[in-house]
Specification:
This protein has 205 residues and is mostly helical. Helix content is 67%, strand content 0%. The chain has eight helices and no strands. The protein has helices at residues 2-42, 71-83, 96-103, 108-134, 138-150, 156-168, 173-183, 190-200. α1 (2-42) packs parallel to α3. It is flat and about 80 Å long. The chain starts with a helix and ends in a 5-residue tail after the last helix.
Amino acid sequence: MNLFFLASFLIFILMVFFVLRKQRKTASEQEAAFWSREARANSVRRKSLENLNYIKIPLESFPTHLLNDNADVLECIDTLESLTSRKIVNFTGYSNTDLKLEYGTANLEALSEYDQNYTVLVRTLQKWADYLLEAGFQKEAAILMEFAVSTGTDISRTYDSLAGYYVSLGQHQEIDRLRGAAKNLHSANRNVILKHLQNSYPDVF
């Protein structure tokens, strides 16, 4: 009996040893690949940014006439107004290395700024939409959220709130459209959004 347990223990130790060695090897290979890719990225020359998918904010089509006595809403509107004069690009899911490889190291600072502007944009849109929803302006809130989805936002609440709005109108086919938009996301949130939509509206899928 003791020999059996001893043999089992030794086998277990060997298995742990091989698993740990494999993990260390994999980690080492991944680190080497990262630094090799980073080195290549740092040598890429500046490329033109003319053909980037710049986002224009259609502020004139937004419900700026509603809740004008709400300081938080006015802050959202002011933020979006300030963004209209800035360059905005959605780089969600792309690392600095990805950006340097594609557009050159010298463009990284500008690209990071464009992406930060995008983050502010979609967060502000959802914040404003939440105030409108709370006040009962569902249709107007949907305008903001639909624009956010068209830009590729990965904010889960945007998809969830829009889906709820479509259901209230009996427009279940629109939820499938949301799923299509979510499938195209280049974001870690992609699967979370898809799973939530499917779990919340199983009859649609």
